Amino acid sequence: MCGIAGVWNVKDAFSVLHDVLLGLQHRGQESVGIVVDGFKTIKGKGLVDTVLTEDKWEDAEKGIGHVRYSTAGSLEDIQPILAFTKKGRLAVAHNGNIPNADKWIDLLHEKGAVFQSTLDSEIFLHLISMNEGDLKSSIVKALKKVPLAYSLLILHEDFLAAARDPYGVRPLFYGRFDEGVVVASEDSALRAIGVEEIEEVPPGTIVFFTTEGEERIKFGSRGKKFCSFEFIYFARPDSHFMSQSVHIVRYRMGEELFRENPIEADVVVPVLDSGLSGAMGFSNASGIPLDIGLMRNRYVGRSFIMPANREKIVKKKLVPIEDVIRGKRVVVIDDSIVRGTTMGIIVKILREAGAKEVHVGIHSPPVRYPCFYGIDTARKKELVAGEHDVEEIKKIVNADSLFYLSLSGLKKAIRRSELCVACFNGEYFHE
Ligand code: AMP
Ligand code: SF4
Known about the structure:
- By secondary structure, the chain is an alpha+beta fold.
- The chain has two domains: 2-224, Aminohydrolase, N-terminal nucleophile (Ntn) domain (Glutamine Phosphoribosylpyrophosphate, subunit 1, domain 1, 4-Layer Sandwich), CATH 3.60.20.10; 244-425, Rossmann fold, CATH 3.40.50.
- Helices cover 30% and strands 26% of the residues.
- Helix 8 (246-260) packs across helix 9, helix 8 (246-260) packs antiparallel against helix 15 and helix 10 packs across helix 12.
- The longest helix is centred in the middle third of the chain and has 15 residues, at 246-260.
- It binds adenosine monophosphate (AMP) and iron/sulfur cluster.
């Protein structure tokens, strides 16, 4: 998963990009890159504040940026990617994943393309460069060929373009700021810097921002399939998708989880921060008081992609408050279980802190299938629910009971049906 940001005709483009990317930092912590006027590029591994330091800022009015979430990669693999094409110089920032990228790469290799990185995002640049016609129509043709999954920003000296695939799998928003426009993966990152008149880039649409104004071109429509995992885990709680607050949707997931699984317990404990909104909903629906039984140390790094010493990291990150837990029947609520290791450690921590019973409630269905559309979950055999049923997972994590939200409960909480739920039901929609 990644976050993308763009600015067009805005004073202090550097600082605006920095602030918007900081607002998207939760979408990627491995690397940061920006490209501004004159294609000046700053890239580095790590967090926004470490890479985009003030001593590197210069005057600029336009640019694009990217925060990346992935386990490996060299500096060449840090986005945005740049290319000199016969139609001019371009920079591209991509959020999403092209599921049949290998097929495209083989095809483009046969036509003589030379790839500079391992990023599937380069496919767009090659297609644009090889198409006949002017630059804008070449971009539109390229997008028509690749149905998913992308939210894309393209920077050229005459325009900034923002595009979303015809299914609208990944989010993208833009709004007015200063004399120009700012674009970002989530509306909360725009709101935080005072962007106004925020709109969604519609699925299958590219918007060109130029000095003359804005031009929208619809290039495809496949029926919306917005990623339900953005609602469940990925996005910030203060974001909105499909005119719905992420926090409120998570709250409803928690309420629905209790309705489907009424249980008696003494205290509801959220796994901070991702399980908080859902735990609040669960507590409200059940009448079981919510309390902070696990404190989170924000300064400990991510545990999701560090398999080697995960137990140590999770234990440092989540510290039990024994006075809340000792002698109690605890229901611990989290947004999801992927490989199952985090929850196994959490149950252990709660038991060591004296919990009488530990029940685990997850406000999404079991993740049984891998994602091909841009969320780095895991391969099928690493997914605990890909290999085991709920009863077995309960034993693996050593809980007294384990319950998930049903798929219909999830849809009910989101109140929209135009969703991708492929990681829960295996119904993919790519060729
Ligand atoms: P696991 O130990 O693999 O089951 O990790 C599950 C935990 O990671 C849950 O607490 C989720 O909040 C979080 N999580 C779920 N999906 C992702 C993801 N794609 N990337 C990072 N963390 C995730
Ligand atoms: Fe989102 Fe799951 Fe669909 Fe991937 S498969 S896009 S994570 S809902």
